[in-house]
C-alpha cells in the first residue's frame, strides 16, 4: 500500500546540511578548492604557518594568488571540506625527524630491532668510574650492539698485573684507555712496560689522551668556559675546577655532583675533544676486529 503521508520527516539525519557534512582533506599541492565566503576558486600552491596560523595559498586560472586560513569553509566539487596540513609535508617532517634520530650519540648509524649482543671475550678497560660513564654515554649503544663490555681498572699503577690477570689472546683482546698519557709522565712509563709483556702484547692495545682527568675531555664551551683553567700544583685538580666554576667542593659528594653536571652536559660525540674521540674509536675497532684465520 502506498504511503499517503510520505516519508517521516524526522527519519534519518535530518540535521545534515544541504550540501552534506564537511570531511577533512589534506591541502596537497594542486588540489582545486573553492572558498565558500568569497567564491575564490584556485589550486593549492603552498601551505605555510604565519603568526601561529596555517595559511593555504590558492592560485586561480589567471595566475593570481590569495591566502586563506586553513580549516573549514571550502568546497570541492560542491561538497564541503575542511582543509588540513598536507600529508606529504607532515610525512617529510616525520622522515626528517626519524633520520635525525637514526644515529647514536657517537654518530654511528643506529641499529633498530636488534637485541644487545651477548658479551664477547674482548674488553675495554678504563681507569675509573667517570671514564666508564662517559664512554657509556657516548658509545654505549655501539658497544651493546658489538657485545663489548667496559671495565674499570681503578688506576693504571699495576697495569701489567691487570694484563696478566685478564690473559688476553686470540678472540680475547684487551683495549686500555689511559688518562694523561704524555711524554715523561708516570703513566707513560707504566704503559711502555705493559706494552712489552709477552705473550700477551699482540692482543693488547693501550692508548691514551693528554688530559689530567677525563673531565677535561668535555669541550669547555658546554660549561660556559672558553678553556679549562690551569690548576696550580699542590691543589687537587677536581677541587680546583669546582672552585673555578663556583661549585661546592668540600666533600666527595660535592665532587660526584660536579661530575654529574659535567656528564649531563654531554649530548653526543660533538661535545667531546677529538683527542678522546679518536682513542676510544681506535679501541673499539681493535677489540671488535675479527680474529685472524
Can you describe what's shown?
This protein has 293 residues and is an alpha/beta fold. The protein has 3 domains: 23-88, SH3 type barrels; 112-217 and 272-293, 3-Layer(aba) Sandwich (Dna Topoisomerase Vi A Subunit, Chain: A, domain 2), CATH 3.40.1360; 219-265, no CATH class. The chain has 7 helices and 11 strands. It has a 7-stranded mixed sheet, with no helix packed on it. It has a 4-stranded parallel sheet with strand order 9-8-10-11, with helices on both faces. It starts with 22 loop residues before the first strand and ends in a 5-residue tail after the last helix.
Number of helices: 7
Number of domains: 3
What does the main sheet amount to?
7 strands, mixed
CATH top level of the largest domain? Alpha Beta
Measured between the Cα atoms of the first and last residue, the distance is: 94 Å
The CATH topology of the largest domain comes to Dna Topoisomerase Vi A Subunit, Chain: A, domain 2
User: What number is the mean pLDDT?
Assistant: 84
User: Based on DSSP secondary structure assignment, what is the total number of beta strands?
Assistant: 11
Coarse morphology: elongated
Question: What is the share of helical residues?
Answer: 25-40%
What's the CATH architecture name of the largest domain? 3-Layer(aba) Sandwich
Strands of the biggest beta sheet: in what spatial order?
A: 1-7-6-2-3-4-5
Quickly give the structural class. Answer: alpha/beta
Classify the beta-strand content into a percent band: 15-25%
The parts where pLDDT drops under 50 for at least 5 residues are 3-14
Order of helices and strands: EEEEEEEHEHEHEHEHHH
Amino acid at each position: 500500500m502506498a504511503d499517503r503521508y510520505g516519508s517521516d520527516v524526522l527519519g534519518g539525519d535530518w540535521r545534515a546540511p544541504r550540501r552534506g557534512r564537511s570531511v577533512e582533506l589534506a591541502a596537497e599541492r594542486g588540489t582545486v578548492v573553492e572558498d565558500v565566503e568569497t567564491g575564490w576558486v584556485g589550486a593549492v600552491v603552498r601551505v605555510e604557518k604565519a603568526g601561529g596560523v596555517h595559511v593555504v595559498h590558492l592560485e586561480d586560472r589567471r595566475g593570481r594568488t590569495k591566502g586563506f586560513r586553513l580549516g573549514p569553509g571550502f568546497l570541492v566539487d560542491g561538497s564541503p571540506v575542511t582543509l588540513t596540513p598536507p600529508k606529504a609535508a607532515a610525512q617529510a617532517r616525520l622522515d626528517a625527524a626519524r633520520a635525525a634520530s637514526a644515529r647514536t650519540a657517537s654518530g654511528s648509524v643506529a641499529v633498530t630491532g636488534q637485541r644487545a649482543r651477548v658479551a664477547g671475550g674482548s674488553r675495554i678497560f678504563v681507569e675509573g668510574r667517570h671514564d666508564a660513564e662517559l664512554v657509556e654515554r657516548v658509545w654505549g649503544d655501539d658497544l651493546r650492539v658489538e657485545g663489548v663490555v667496559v671495565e674499570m681498572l681503578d688506576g693504571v699503577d699495576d697495569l701489567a698485573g691487570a694484563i696478566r690477570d685478564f690473559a688476553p689472546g686470540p678472540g680475547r683482546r684487551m683495549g686500555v684507555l689511559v688518562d694523561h698519557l704524555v711524554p715523561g709522565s708516570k703513566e707513560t712509563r707504566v704503559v711502555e712496560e705493559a706494552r712489552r709483556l709477552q705473550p700477551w702484547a699482540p692482543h693488547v692495545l693501550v692508548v691514551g689522551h693528554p688530559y689530567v682527568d677525563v673531565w677535561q675531555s668535555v669541550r669547555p664551551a658546554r660549561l660556559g668556559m672558553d678553556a679549562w683553567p690551569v690548576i696550580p700544583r699542590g691543589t687537587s685538580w677536581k677541587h680546583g675546577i669546582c672552585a673555578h666554576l663556583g661549585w661546592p667542593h668540600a666533600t666527595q659528594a660535592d665532587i660526584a655532583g660536579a661530575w654529574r653536571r659535567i656528564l649531563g652536559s654531554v649530548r653526543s660525540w660533538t661535545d667531546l675533544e677529538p683527542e678522546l674521540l679518536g682513542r676510544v674509536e681506535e679501541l673499539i675497532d681493535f677489540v671488535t676486529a675479527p680474529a685472524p684465520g
